[in-house]
């Protein structure tokens, strides 16, 4: 097969256009290949490429040309080649590439995924991660992140909306507010009956052997909002508890907002510290193992790729979904957004 | 038993001083208990505590007093109680506490560990983590970090020096420098013989099916330093490669310094991306699984507790040691320091 290099395209002579049926190129009057497609055919010796009908290009020259046009050509080509070698139909375009369901060819079926390509050394804003979900809704495709690591291995991640099922929550009877003592960065509830109830029915806090309940700051703040308890603080009114909590836990406001949102959905929320996240979340009261790890981030957070990889790998290893949560301004209000990122087996 | 509160101590009447033999308190003329020790005896109803020979204090009043004196009393007491309940002899003092080997009592044997207490919501500078190793050498004790999480559970971490065994490295023959092409954020080596040798003998790079070698920026920089290869860059001299790499990978200088240090020790170093760290390191050429995960940090890095927990938990799950590396100025030179942090079963 013969092609002619023309900027960011390689034009194939009309008679050779049967490769269209093999999933390469697009018909735009003439048949055009992207640089990734042409490079793959060149490397596999299925194509010869000339520049201005003169010099035949070898792979080295072709790579130089491609890198001049796109500095990211290296990682783009590695992902393209990896997907082709795995037997997928893939087409440059969209965010970075379109990926087709296994066995399908472009034209026969619509693409199922769009791929965003990153390198191990890139940084990736949380906002861009969340924006993939908006693109997904608009394009009706599923988002995939492909990360090319320093060893030129590629890890694929799927990005999903998190759909929590709403669970009816116990309507607590408002009794007298329980007395508690602030122990610096946690709160001690003295009433042994209430302590046992809150712990056994709704999984709040840690029950000591004396049947007292140690509550975290977010738990205490939430139960206070529910008029269940009050906090005795010297010289400090309990209404100021949120201010106090915020002064000793730097990300308290974000963390509390997410905690409240999840509890209001009827979910059981406990610290995820042992898994390196803010929360572990149980879908149901009877569940033995938590289903989600939720890490709360400021909306302007920027991920390093190793940070994303570490969080997702850990969650995967303990059979939980890794979910990043953040607060977003929506008009006058703040809403909580959840982005679920997981490893994807291709 | 009767005690009298006196600031940050509780004084025990002389006749009752047999508790000294049970591992509580210190003899300083009279027998003194720390607030944690006294609180533990009070909570277990083995002691009555009075203030100024008047009012008998209940636990709530005692906690208030203790929190007035030390805002961190809550987490300190939780760690103290946890260790006592696990049957350890523990004594307030040193960094936070001294911990004795199982079965030993203070006075009989020296303490084995010193404990640094942190809360899930604390931040912990890398410099403070590394300083624990200096203290350890000075005090001839092993450092332990106790982190009290939001559920008032306690996770213990051991902090160690990393002792890498030096392995004799292959003295590479200096042949002609191999030609390579810069592919943006990686480097492609064309010589198929050299590619196979470097990959099979020293585990460099990724070998493609065409027997070309894809090298990472740190690998390429190191092999260039060893006069093994040169990089063809348009309009750019290969000496400037380090500058180039630094411009596209923000932490390249630190990362490269650690890579070179490890390679010079004869270790096999590959990306640790899949484990969320910069490097995975093999002790020997025949080793199937890597032994260490190494994450490179700027010297001024400050850990969140969840970050530490996530990294260590992941490493533990894949049976590797988690090591944090950073560059430290030592006179005129930079030296690389390695801090090994692992979960500790008590």
Describe, in plain words, how this protein is organized in 3D.
Two copies of one chain form a homodimer. Chain A has helices at residues 35-43, 59-69, 73-85, 126-139, 192-202, 217-225, 241-248, 252-264, 305-317; strands spanning 2-6, 9-12, 26-28, 30-34, 48-51, 55-56, 90-92, 97-99, 113-119, 123-125, 142-148, 154-161, 178-182, 187-189, 206-207, 213-215, 229-232, 268-272, 277-282, 292-296, 302-304, 321-330, 333-343. Chain A has 346 residues and is α+β, with helices and mostly antiparallel strands. Chain A has nine helices and 23 strands. The radius of gyration of chain A is 27 Å and the shape is elongated. In chain A, the strands form four sheets. Chain A has a ten-stranded mixed sheet with strand order 7-8-9-11-12-23-22-20-19-18. The model of chain A has no long low-confidence stretch (mean pLDDT 91). Chain A has four domains: 1-71, tRNA intron endonuclease, N-terminal domain (MutS, DNA mismatch repair protein, domain I, 3-Layer(aba) Sandwich), CATH 3.40.1170.20; 88-161, Trna Endonuclease, Chain: A, domain 1; 162-249, MutS, DNA mismatch repair protein, domain I, CATH 3.40.1170.20; 255-341, Trna Endonuclease, Chain: A, domain 1 (3-Layer(aba) Sandwich), CATH 3.40.1350.10. Chains A and B meet through α2, α3, α6, β18 and α9 of A and α2, α3, α6, β18 and α9 of B.
Task: Summarize the main sheet of chain A.
Answer: 10 strands, mixed
CATH class of the largest domain in chain A: Alpha Beta
* Helicity level of chain A: 25-40%
CATH architecture of the largest domain in chain A: 3-Layer(aba) Sandwich
**Total of helices of chain A:** 9
Q: What gap, in angstroms, lies between the N and C termini of chain A?
A: 30 Å
């Amino acid at each position: 097969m013969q092609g002619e290099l023309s900027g960011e395209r390689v034009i194939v002579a009309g008679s050779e256009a049967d490769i269209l049926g093999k999933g390469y190129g697009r018909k735009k009057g003439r048949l055009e290949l992207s640089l990734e497609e042409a490079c793959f055919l060149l490397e596999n010796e299925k194509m010869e490429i000339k520049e201005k009908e003169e010099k035949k290009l070898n792979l080295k020259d072709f790579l130089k040309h491609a890198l001049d046009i796109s500095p990211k050509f290296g990682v783009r080509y590695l992902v393209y080649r990896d997907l082709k070698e795995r037997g997928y139909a893939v087409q440059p375009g969209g965010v970075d590439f379109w990926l087709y369901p296994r066995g399908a060819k472009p034209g026969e079926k619509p693409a199922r995924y769009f791929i965003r390509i990153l390198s191990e050394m890139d940084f990736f804003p949380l906002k861009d991660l969340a924006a993939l979900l908006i693109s997904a809704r608009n394009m009706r495709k599923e988002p995939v992140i492909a990360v090319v690591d320093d060893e030129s291995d590629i890890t694929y991640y799927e990005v999903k909306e998190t759909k929590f099922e709403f669970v009816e929550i116990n309507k607590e009877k408002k009794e007298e507010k329980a007395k508690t003592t602030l122990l610096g960065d946690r709160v001690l509830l003295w009433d042994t009956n209430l302590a046992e109830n809150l712990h056994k029915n709704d999984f709040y806090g840690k029950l000591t052997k004396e049947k007292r309940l140690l509550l975290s700051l977010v738990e205490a703040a939430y139960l206070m909002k529910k008029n269940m308890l009050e906090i005795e603080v010297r010289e400090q009114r309990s209404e100021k508890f949120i201010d106090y909590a915020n002064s000793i836990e730097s990300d308290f406001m974000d963390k509390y907002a997410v905690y409240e949102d999840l509890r209001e959905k009827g979910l059981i929320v406990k610290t995820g510290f042992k898994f390196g996240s803010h929360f572990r979340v149980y879908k149901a009261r009877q569940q033995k193992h938590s289903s989600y790890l939720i890490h709360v981030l400021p909306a302007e957070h920027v991920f390093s790729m190793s940070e994303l990889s570490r969080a997702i790998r850990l969650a995967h290893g303990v059979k939980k979904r890794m979910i990043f949560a953040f607060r977003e301004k929506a008009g006058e209000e703040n809403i909580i957004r959840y982005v679920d990122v997981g490893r994807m087996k291709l």
